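Input sequence (187 aa), recorded before submission:
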Amino acid sequence: AMHDPRAFSGQALVYVTSPRGACHNQSDYYTVEMGGTLEEIGVPMTDRFADSGKAASVARHQHWRTLCNDLVICFFAVVSPGSVAELVNAAMGWERSLEDLLLAGERGWNMKRLLNLRLGLNPANEKLPLLLRQPLPDGGQEGHVPDLEMMLDEYYAASGWDRASGRPTRRRLEALGLSEFVEDNQP
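Predicted structure, token format:
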């Protein structure tokens, strides 16, 4: 199963944090776990069964794919991040760094998060269906089920989100230039 989260722990994290449900088009992180690294943006290859230590990389990949979606770049057209930056700068007459563009992707990801929270999403929703929380009895991912609670703890910390509420923290929103979305009682 190409997209089975029991075969790719990072993809499991993508599924439970995706703004539109379990969708590999929000981030095809499984490609990283299969060897398709994006070192240029700090997304190294990881062991597909490793649960610990990949949450920041997953978040970074989500920001990259949000940027690609915003620019209407097909995921099947493998365009390097550096080339994307060059194309955007040429088309817009800008001189933005790749990091500036990734920050735009992160802003978009956090805006989607805020919208979903406003519509009723909460951290309790971030789980896989029961079937996908059961280990498979054989095959390449035999016996493996990702430790999503631990991964979510790491993900929230890496993303600057409050674990209890699911909201991006005041500090994170301010750093992203999204101060107008800070609530009075927000951590």
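Checked by second reader. The domain at 9-181 is CATH 1.10.599.10 (Aldehyde Ferredoxin Oxidoreductase Protein, subunit A; domain 3).
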